[in-house]
Structures are given as C-alpha cells and as structure tokens.
Amino acid sequence: MILLENETVKVLIASKGAELRSIQSKLTGLNYLWKGDPMFWGKFSPVLFPVIGGLKDNTYCIGEECYQLPRHGFARDMEFNAEQISAVEALFTLTENSETLKVYPFEFKLALRYKLSGSSVSCTYEVTNPGEKELLFSAGGHPAFAVPLTAETSYEDYYLEFSADESVVYHEIENNLISDQTAILQLDERKLNLQHSLFYNDALVFKDLKSNTISLKNTKNQHGLHFRFIAFPFFGIWAAKDADFVCLEPWCGIADGVHHNQQLSDKEGIVSLSPGQDWKRIWEVEVF
Fold it and tell me: Where does 2-287 sit in CATH, by number?
C-alpha cells in the first residue's frame, strides 16, 4: 500500500489493481471513499481495462479468433508495479504477460498516475502501444464515494449536481449489456436527488453528458466533493442495492449493445492506438 500525503489530504492506494482505498481530508477528518464492505460490494475504485462493462456472452472476437473476458476486464484484479515518485505522486504500471496474452492478444503498457494538489486527487490513465499492430482497448474509472459522509445525514439527503445538464438521457442495462431502451431524468436546477431505488435496475449509463463536473453535495452540511473529467465520452452512475455509496464512472468505452456482433474492432467506443503511440485521460476529485 502506498500513502500519498500533503497538508490537506492523504490517500492510500493498493498495488493490486492500482486501486484507491481511501481519500481522507485532514481538514474535515472524513474519508470520502466507500469502505469496501463485501456484504454489498468489496471494491473501492477499480481500474477498468481492457474492456468496460459486459461483453456479449463474455466473448469478443478478432476476425475468426474469439476470446473471453469478465465484466470490466482483468486489470482490477492484477498486481501492478508500484513506484512512489514523491510524497504526493505515485505511478502504477501493468504490462502484458503470458496469462493476459491468452485472453487479450495485445502488447500494452497501462499506467495509473495518482497525484495530490491541495484538496484534490488526480488519476491519470496512460496507455502505450509497444507492439507492432493496432492496440484495441477501453479504459475507465469506477470510484465509489461514501454516502452518507457524516453520521447526521442519510442517503436521501444527498444529491448530484451537474455542471451543464438540465436533463439527462440514460441507457438501460439488460443482462449486463446496453439495451435499446432509454429514459430521461429531469434535473431540478441541474440536481439529481439520490435514492437507493435509482440503481435497482443496475447503473445509469450516459452517452451524451454536457457536464464535465459532477458534484456530490447534501442538504444538511457543507461537506462533499467535486468530480471532474474531460474527454470521456461515456459515464456511469451506480451503487449496489441499498449500499451506502455512489460510483461516478468516467469511461472511454462501454458495455456491448444487445445486438453487437462481438467483433472488438466494431465495439462502440473502442480506442484504437497505433504502434508506438500514447494515450492519456485524467479525472480528478476535490473534497471539501
């Protein structure tokens, strides 16, 4: 476990899955990340790579060759090489090995860079293609934030405030896949009130958010967070049934549609990276 710390915040990150385990403010004493209770959901902030969401029949194909991957890929369950750059920065790297090549026939380098600045924690995804063919992948985040944050508040006291959307269209999930069904959520002054029933049918999946910041706030006190993301074309919001958290999930990639042909190159949102090229995306959370 690596500890990052500055004058206002301290963060713990595990080498397994390069997973954030806590974000604690020295100013408020609060841990803003979910506690990882396995009775509901035993993860904290899994890294999604090389696929996001479910594959149709857990299978994808490259031409005539077909492979199987679990929902959200394998990176979240693998041991990363961990390097502490400084008191406020750490780098976690993962490359292909004999086991990954059996299920994902690509050379790759995936790096997660965490850095503190004031009351903010940034997470940078860096993907490099060291191979001689196009690298096809998806990558994204799945951080779970504690709701409620404080003892005197309840889940229903909290809301998500969108920086630019007045209403949002979400795509419904069917057997871990993106269905043809959509629904509209009307936002009251760009606010979505949290309630457990929002997630009884799985995640809310968005393809066309205008917002690049979603804030978690409540009606009882001033504690919360700002979650910022840029150039992620898809976004998920989810919680396990009746669990005390909400996941804010920026994605470059998405689950298969129910009618997908299972060809990886045709997968919606798939990133194609040429040999020798690099790819980077960043999300950031500021706590208050």
Answer: 2.70.98.10
